[in-house]
Automatic annotation (TrEMBL):
It is an enzyme of class 1 (oxidoreductase). Substrate binds at residues 90, 100, 128, 222. This is 3-isopropylmalate dehydrogenase. The keyword RNA-binding does not apply. The gene is leuB. HAMAP family: LeuB_type1 (MF_01033). Belongs to the isocitrate and isopropylmalate dehydrogenases family. LeuB type 1 subfamily. Its main location: cytoplasm. The lineage of its organism: Bacteria, Pseudomonadati, Pseudomonadota, Betaproteobacteria, Burkholderiales. It is found in: Cytoplasm. It comes from Variovorax ginsengisoli. Binds 1 Mg(2+) or Mn(2+) ion per subunit.
Length: 356
């Protein structure tokens, strides 16, 4: 089992270090190799996704990814910015299916800004299409407008597009996932305005006929954003495009109180995957030893489950995480009165102890 370890920037190195300790403790035959990515790779090699890093990722069964980005790179040309590393990995590895669970842990219901009764027991799975849509659609760029409201003015444009096979395959991923849960899928679109998303809705409906045991409904993205804060527990599996999924998954993450708890998986057609916490590089707290490593540790669990076929080991990690929460240990992002505040390494220590 080959794992490419790409810690990246900011808190990335600190949280990935804890996940590695947990993986090591499982005593499974992993081969792990680390490489630079994001701003760290730009500093060392002049590019956020050096060829050697991409090659390592391609040859691995799974990639364990920390986070990339720092404000200091915001002025670089777009192709050199740290975010291009994650976009490049998604594209080059064909990681079209992004799983972002939003689970509210019983011990953390008070960490949410919503009323406890709205989010207690929350367990949503957002499935975001990850290699298409306006993120990757060509053409894009800047030019002089020849029509529109201001002909002759400078303008910028991106292209929102989806092909039939792209929508079919992500729809199937969602229906299959729903079969293993409560058999409900909500497809989120903007079919009332966008041609791309009327097409999306039509195709999801078609694919849905192959899954008569799964209940399918459709919701416009603006309404979905509203329902997520009004009655989040009404959702089970949400499937949506790349851009809507980006936005709704941050919203759903925050319902649970801390984005520091949420893992994610990005898979291609052969179940090769990239696993990363749903949060970013948090440069404001980097190097202070206070980042929550649990999202990364839980991402490692997802990696064991989806790409490495080690369900038992995945469950061992998830049980250990629940145990440390039950013990009352909290990093500052999930701290509340009456619990014990710990740092990144102490949290890692506690998970290791709970595993043993
Ligand atoms: C995410 C992030 C990325 C995205 C950025 C860093 C390119 O926000 O994974 O959700 O927009 O997909
Ligand atoms: Mg995002």
């Amino acid at each position: 089992m080959k794992i490419a370890v790409l810690p990246g920037d900011g808190i990335g190195t600190e949280i990935v270090a804890q996940a590695i300790r947990v993986l090591d403790a499982l005593d499974l035959p992993f081969e792990m190799e680390t490489a630079l990515v994001g701003g760290a790779a730009y500093e060392a090699h002049g590019h956020p996704l050096p060829d050697a890093t991409l090659k390592l990722a391609k040859e691995a069964d799974a990639v364990l990814f920390g986070a990339v980005g720092d404000w200091k790179y915001d002025k670089l040309d777009r192709p050199l910015r740290p975010e291009q590393a994650i976009l490049g990995l998604r594209k080059n590895l064909g990681l079209f299916a992004n799983f972002r669970p939003a689970i509210c842990y019983e011990q953390l219901v008070d960490a949410s800004s919503l009323k406890p009764e709205l989010i207690a027991g929350l367990d949503i799975l957002i499935i975001r299409e990850l290699t298409g849509d306006i993120y990757f659609g060509q053409p894009r760029g800047r030019r002089t407008a020849v029509d529109g409201h201001f002909p002759g003015a400078d303008e910028a444009f991106d292209t929102m597009r989806y092909s039939r096979p792209e929508v079919e395959r992500i729809a199937r991923v969602a229906f299959e996932a729903a079969r293993k849960r409560s058999k409900r899928v909500t497809s989120v679109d903007k079919a009332n305005v966008l041609e791309t998303f009327q097409f999306w809705k039509d195709i999801v409906t078609e694919v849905g006929k192959e899954y008569p045991d799964v209940e399918l409904d459709h919701m416009y993205v603006d309404n979905a954003a509203m329902q997520l804060v009004k009655a989040p527990k009404k959702f089970d599996v949400i499937v949506t495009g790349n851009m809507f999924g980006d936005i709704l998954s941050d919203e759903a993450a925050m319902l649970t109180g801390s984005i520091g708890m949420l893992p994610s998986a990005s898979l291609n057609a052969s179940n090769q995957g990239l696993y990363e916490p749903s949060h970013g590089s948090a440069p404001d707290i980097a190097g202070k030893g206070v980042a929550n490593p649990l999202a990364t540790i839980l991402s490692a669990a997802m990696m064991l489950r989806y790409s490495l076929n080690q369900e038992d080991a995945a469950q061992r990690i998830e049980t250990a995480v629940k145990k440390v929460l039950a013990q009352g240990l909290r990093t500052p992002d999930i701290y509340s009165a009456g619990t014990t505040k710990v740092g990144t390494v102490e949290m890692g220590d506690a998970v290791l102890k709970a595993l043993a």
